[in-house]
Amino acid sequence: MKLAGIKQPRYLSWRLAANIILVAILLPLVLVASRSFMLDTSNLRHITSNLLPLYLWNTSILVIGTSAITLIIGVATAWIVTVYDFPFRRKFEWLLILPLSIPTFINAIAYVGLTDYAGPIRIFLRWLNVDIYLDIMNHTGAILVMSLVLYPYVYITSRSAFLLQSASLIEVSRSLGQPMKKTFRKVVLPLAWPAIFAGLILVIMEVLNDYGVVSYFGIPTFTVGIFRSWLALGDLSTAVFLSMIVLIFVIVLLVIEFRANQKKRFSIDKAERSFKRLKPKKKWVAFAICFFPFLVGFIVPVCQLMWWFILAYSHDVWSHLLTLARNTALLGSLSSIIILLLSIVLAYTFRLVDKRGFKKTISKLPMLGYAMPGAVIAVGIIALVLIINPSLIYSGISALVFGYTVRFFAVGYGSIQSGFDKISRQIDDAAISLGSNSLRNLIRIHIPILKPVLMGSLIMVFVDVAKELPITLILRPFNYETLATNAFQYAKDEMAPRAASSSLLIIFASAVPVYYLNRILHRK
Amino acid sequence: MRYIKLLLLTLTIACSGKSENKEESTASEDQVLNVYSHRHYDADKQAFERFTKETGIKINLVKAGADELINRLEMEGENSPADVLITVDAAKLNRAKAMGLLQSVDANTNNKEGFIDLDKNWYAITYRARVIAYDKEDVTVAELSTYEDLADEKWNDRILIRSSGSSYNQSLLSSIIYENGEEAASAWAKGIVENMAREPKGGDRDQIKAIASGIGDLAVVNTYYVGLLLNSDNSEEVKAGQRVGIYFPNQDGRGGHINISGVGVTKNAPNKANAVRFIEFLTSEEIQKFYAATSFEYPVHKDVSPDSTVAAWGEFKIDDLDYATNPDLLDQAIKIFDEAGWN
After folding, report:
1. Which residue from A minimizes the CA distance to B8?
2. Is A337 on the interface with B (CB under 8 A)?
3. Which of A448-462, A478-492, B82-96: highest mean pLDDT?
4. Is B98 on the interface with A (CB under 8 A)?
5. Which of A445, B304, B317, B343 has a 20 to 30 A CA-CA distance from A462?
6. Chain B contacts of A314, Cβ < 8 Å?
7. What is the mean pLDDT of residues A397-424?
């Protein structure tokens, strides 16, 4: 709002801080891109003529498949848990998030281990004298393996959207004679769609980024192509070209999300939410729908890992486990706090300055790091460190934390930004008119209101860092191991049983914060 | 106020994390060796610990894929802290050599002939053989002969092999290009794709388990993984391993294909003397015996014989590594794989 004679404050220091953050986050990405122009593109023709259609086809199938499954599981369970009353409902609220703690690659080896020749299912079948060859190393298998541990992204965002929706809206619709199903379809879903889509984008970016599962299952996707041209053919420019295709796709998605969010309207009311009671039979249907994803996304892989853990018990799987856990915890908390602080500054500045139209899309740019393969980001970081001070390489974990910040900025920033959007601007204006300033507003008003969102994003970044692999492998200092690198080492060496102890610890270390995440969500 | 405290706490943690690492790296500045390694085995860890114990030289280790490490060495240039590069395939070492990332050093070793680079840019530590594992029930040894023969029609729908992303397969195809020319190699790759029992997927162990499941009859695998399978914690995996026989191909011709693990000293190694000591240590009789006993690999030392699991497969004629001296063959191999539709 502009009044004659009153100048809008310019917030120079906020702008300066925001610009520095933007540059720092985007610089590694720009450096990778610029490096690519220095090299030749002789392999580009080879890739485009022989492989591009294949990459496109495989990637599309995986993206569409995982999107469909995560949408169905995530939205259905979120809706049931929010609206209906059934046995163990309160437990499911957080149990359904737990699969998020399992890295996709670990889930893949667990399921392969479960179904292959030496796995318990086949052993049991042979005992019954009916041996059936179960092959999950294909498109369907990859889609399932990834969906089962990624659906919580959709679950979390859609549940918080359902919780924020005014309960009276549902009541109005019901009182006008609409059945629950129709209310859901006509009222609830359209209103919650932007939030659901935001979760879906995270799923899609994870799938686009996955290298572990697809390379193990022999499914050539864009990421496989990126690694092949960069590492095997030593051609970074072709690799960057392929990453750019992925990036453009992600930008399109972000623009769609952005448009959807513009139409979003919120009306938070404090009306006590009542849970719809179900008939005894239906109660158990609701229970089954919620239990199934938890069973196959968490209990089954964890049991397989436990079995492996027992098999490998006699080997030295214990030593250093404590150091590994400490390293993982340190990296996770450090990166999540840094991302949190930077996100607050950035999101708050964009709120103050209130850019519109095209300029506002700039506020989405830092999210691009999430769509880039970790290894490509690592190249950018190394290039940057070499420019600043070559002796910094391996001197500490700062390069590593920087890498995580670029890579996972979207995870924290996305939710914090939408959190800010939900706070009415009238509150800011009122506080300013009473003599407060922008910094004081942030500390005394916004941060307290946003506390649940902030805690939630801290935990999500922590879980992501604990699972991260390529950046950790390339940028870690000498002799530095984390739980993820240790698990990967054995898995890569085809000694899955010995990877079990550190995998279980990753899951445990992530499950504890997830439990608290729900308690925070619940307090809303 | 609480937020300021939180901020301070964060900064303290950040600084303490950094200073901790600095102390580590400065503590023994004169006696260190910085290792970039693609090998990530427990045997290496123990061998390195023994090296430190005997020489007092501390080993700083970074483990990542060979290509990543080479790429990193190239980017770092003169500033690279690395002293040695270890890979699991000679072709990768030769690529590093061709890029000018390694230097020639004189190390006193008792390696078998052919297990040292001609220009002494790298020294082999161990090797594995890329062999044919066959279903003992469905295949007789008399039917088997060469890698080239695997493209023959009689093996239609019977061959199991992992994806072309595996450096072992890239190396094998490079040797075939070197031996038979690009056209024949291309025809071979297409023939193999025709004969595959399923799309290439999984690791080497998975191929043998697929034989046990009756999906195919032949698998091209690395002996190291067969050794692991036969000594697995899971008794069912051991059974799967026992179902297959090991055949060394091309014994009447150029010999069986092997993958060499080797170590090379980097061009700008800050601790060159330590690096040479390291090479001599890894190739010493004592450590070679240790490797043979713990990691199911073949030792390179003249007087050390392999472990009983490995020795049971018998001795074999080894293909020389001439193909590996031309790193361009790797690029060609990848393109041939892609054109043949070998994932």
Report:
1. A337
2. yes
3. B82-96
4. no
5. A445
6. 233
7. 88
Contact A311 B233 (CB under 8 A): yes
Tens of pLDDT, residues A353-394: 866 555 667 777 888 888 777 877 887 888 888 888 776 666
Measured between CB atoms, does B205 come within 8 Å of chain A?
A: yes
Q: Tell me the chain A residues in contact with residue B38 when contact means C-beta distances shorter than 8 Å.
A: none
More confident of the two residues A247 and B156? B156
Q: What's A405-427 look like in SS3?
A: HHHHHHHHHHHHHHHHHCCCHHH
What's the gap in Å between the CA of A507 and the closest CA on chain B?
23
Q: Which residue of B has its CA nearest to A476?
A: B62
Q: Say whether A497 and B234 touch across the interface (CB within 8 A).
A: yes
Q: What is the DSSP letter of B116?
A: B
pLDDT per position as a tens digit, B221-251? 999 999 889 988 888 899 999 999 999 999 9
Check CB contact under 8 Å for A218 and B201. Answer: yes
Looking at A164-173, A486-495, B295-304, which range is the least confident one?
Answer: A164-173
Q: What whole-number distance in Å separates Cα of residue B264 and Cα of residue B84?
A: 5
Q: Which fold has domain B31-126+258-311?
A: D-Maltodextrin-Binding Protein; domain 2 (3.40.190)
Average pLDDT, stretch A488-509? 85
> Is the Cβ pair A494, B204 closer than 8 Å?
yes
Environment class of B292 (CB within 10 Å of its CB; exposed 0-12, middle 13-18, buried 19+): buried
Q: Chain B: give the shortest CA distance to residue A93, in Å.
A: 29
The reply to whether domains B31-126+258-311 and B128-256+318-340 share a CATH topology is yes
- The Cα of A318 is separated from the nearest Cα of chain B by a number of Å equal to 13
Q: Which residue has the higher pLDDT, B215 or A264?
A: B215
Task: Judge: B10–A474 Cβ closer than 8 Å, yes or no.
Answer: no
Q: CB-based contact (8 Å) between A387 and chain B?
A: no
State which residue of chain B sits closest to A442, comparing Cα positions. Answer: B3
Q: Do B25 and A394 touch (CB under 8 A)?
A: yes
Architecture of domain B128-256+318-340: 3-Layer(aba) Sandwich (3.40)
Beta bridge partners of B87: B262
Does the pLDDT value for residue B78 go beyond 90? no
Query: What pLDDT score does B17 carry?
Result: 45
Give the β-pairing of B58-63 and B32-37.
parallel
Residue A347 predicted with pLDDT over 80: yes
pLDDT digits (tens, 9 = 90+) for B203-216: 999 999 999 988 99
CA distances, B132 to each of A1, B208, B219 (Å): 77, 10, 6
Q: Where are the domains of chain B?
A: 31-126+258-311, 128-256+318-340
Which contiguous run of DSSP H or E holds residue A85? strand A84-85
Q: Please judge whether A391 and B79 are an interchain contact, meaning their C-beta atoms are less than 8 angstroms apart.
A: yes
Q: Tell whether the model's pLDDT for residue A277 goes beyond 90.
A: no
Q: How far apart are CA A14 and CA A185, in angstroms?
A: 42
Q: Pairing mode, if any, of strands B159-160 and A276-277? A: unpaired
**How confident is residue A34, by pLDDT bands cut at 50, 70 and 90?**
confident
Q: Is the per-residue pLDDT at A51 higher than 60?
A: yes
Q: SS3 sequence, A28-84?
A: HHHHHHHHHHCCCCHHHHHHHHHCHHHHHHHHHHHHHHHHHHHHHHHHHHHHHHHHE
pLDDT band at residue B4 using 50, 70 and 90 as cut-offs: low
A389 touching chain B per CB within 8 A: no
- DSSP, collapsed to helix, strand or coil, labels residue A261 as helix
Q: Are A515 and A456 in contact (CB under 8 A)?
A: no
Chain pair A-B, CB pairs under 8 angstroms: 165
Q: A69-78, A112-121, A192-201, A211-220: lowest mean pLDDT where?
A: A192-201
Question: Around A275, how many Cα atoms within 13 Å sit in the side-chain half-sphere?
Answer: 15
